[in-house]
Amino acid sequence: MTNGAGPLDPGAVDQLDELPVLDPSTAHRVTDRVVRPPMSFWDRSKLLILSFGLWWILLWAALSNNPIEPFSTAVGNELKGLLWLEVLFGLELIRQIHYLISERSAGWHRFWSEVVFGGLNRQTHRINDWNRFRIGRAIRVVIFLALLAVILAAFFHTSPLVSLFQVPAAFITALPLIVQLLFYMLLIVVQFGALFWFLSRGGVDTYFPGDVKTRFTDVWGQDAVLERVKESIIYLKDPDEIESRGGYVPGGILLWGPPGTGKTLIAEAVAGETHNPFVFVDPGAFTNMFMGVGILKVKSLFRKLRKLALRYGGVVVFFDEADSLGNRGALGRGGGVFGPSSAAEPKPWQHVGCHGGTYVDPAINAQMVAASGPFAPPDDGPFQRSRMMAGMMGGGGMGTLQSLLSELSGLKKPRGVVSRVVRRTMGFPPKPPPKYRIMVMMATNMPESLDEALLRPGRIDRIYKVGYPSKAGRVRTYQGYFSKVKHELTSENMDRLATVTPYATGATIKDLVNESLINAIRAERETITWQDVVKAKQLKELGPPEDVEYVERERHATAVHEACHAVTAVAMNREMVIDVATIEKGGSYLGMVTQVRVEDTFTRWRTDYEGQVMVFLASLAGEKMFFGGDNSSGLHSDLEQATRIAIFMEGYWGMGRTVASHGITKEAGIGGEGPNDRRKRETGMLAGGLGVRIEAKLEELLERTRQLLEENRLQVLAVAHALEQFKTVTGEDVIAIVRGTEGPLIDGTRYHTDEFRALVEEYHTKMVEAHESRNPKHIEFPLLPGVVREPLEPVSTYADHEAIDPTH
Q1: pLDDT tens track for 15-33
Q2: Which residues, other chains included, contact 766 with Cβ-Cβ below 8 Å and sequence gap of 6+?
Q3: Model's pTM, two decimal places?
């Protein structure tokens, strides 16, 4: 004997044989109750309480009609006059007594349920279900009318039949009062409706064809995205071109990217170019105090969009800052179309020193900053990973996002009352809804906070990144904005400016041009010069310097520190150039050297990283070399960055003496007691072979840096002298000083004479003595006359830059 799972246990077969066999004639009674199930107190007493309450109401109605009648007399009269109600009360009381006995006596319950009512049920079940339902309904109506007639007869003091005909006359008499009550109720409803209607207004602006003057030609630096957007507009104007071949018009576009890259400007260009209405939705339109107002706004918005689409053949709606629409919980799950987001920021400097992240390649610096810890691998994705998430619902409020999702791709009901009601009433099918040509555009710089359901195809069909423009795009953007003002900048100036602003956006470029114009106006000039642009750039990037005067020996030490960075950067970084060097104190630094990449490249090589590490280590090597083995605490951030890059080179990027990736060993828990024991794992890593290799790499690069600085001692002192004299020096002037050529503002040949060598060495010796003795005695700074040149056009572009010969 087997079942679906295998042979049955023989012991179980024996147990089955011992089970009692039920008589088929009594098998249906096994589950029958012996007595009636007990009723609750309310079910047992509700009709009794109702009838007694009705009798009491009628009693007080009689007393109100004859106030001088004694209470006892009124009760006696009502007992005689309401005999029908008392009979009903008695019948209900008998019924409840019957139920009470059936709950306790099996014989009584069986007699009434099987013999009396069972026989009646068998007789009535001979009638079909529909006729039995109609007969029962008619009986219930008759009983209801009879009870109503008796009650009305007692109320009107007439016969039951006559009382039914007095109801219309009483209703007409009470009609003014009823109308007043209905009017007040309607007034309250209208007040609430008007309040919600008023709250649902605003936040939506409609522009008709010709209202917006921005065109596609006004958008610079985003040509690839612009072409795709133009394509979508073409399909909106001529949908048959794609629908006739079995496709559908893309109905949604998401533009995402860093702030200021031109997302809203592209939308404005669409509004200016298209011949359809353009509806702009304010970011805070769906943020409301009362629940449900956001839903009304969504419904009202799409009702307007459908009307405009039918009238003009299509409509474009733009949601700016779409992340304000909220998220139903994808962020809490750590997911989403774009993955989790992070606003990874560098830790604040604990000590004021050199701004260690400015002269490094911005791409490398971004990797350092994005690392979640000092030994975590970088995340090269578009959004860095983090477990710190935003709220689940965002600003849209409960139901607003769901309503928007439903409107974007929900079922389209037939349009019009005639189609939905009249045609259906007459038996005709309603007309199918028209095709609404609605293009939805959204813009956000936080795409990971958008709901996954919002970004699926059918709602948002195309997702474009509006990123930082390329160098060619930046040049075109600078040319566009400078064409609106008077200036003296040449094409070489534009190219250089695009080079030294690698992460400039359209908004920052526009702001830089405006700040340059302010500088020109401040100098009472009509045209913008290159010096105005340089000053504006320094102000925007570095901010106004603090009004702080260094102690002379500290000023010289800071200048030497930054000069070591600058000379090493010029010598080692062949793909990057110095943008600016300064010793003007800022909020978190004493000085800095910033670098920019000459070309937009996307790969980094071992020699590039070694050059970056040497630039970091130049401060340590230089301070020890120029100050007799002593060094300051201001280089701590330099050592942090150098150590991070060395860890990545040895442990992750295959640029060391081993091949294994520490990223995998970290996941496996190698180097610690468990995969979650991060501190012990990192300690074990540094104490093991990897830590030894990292230290060896840093020592090797430190020695190379020391040799480089020794061979270029004069160049270091020359750059330090220029920094002490001018505080801030442009990158081209730094290169001119190091190479001994003429720069745009500084004549670098003056720093390569025997006279200057003797002068600067003597000054440096005095400063070292003052440093060692902490002597506050004033030391006269030796100015170098004739070093400042008249403003000239640059003698070379950054594209022509070559690294200096360390032996120069």
Answers
A1: 434 444 444 444 444 345 5
A2: 779
A3: 0.59
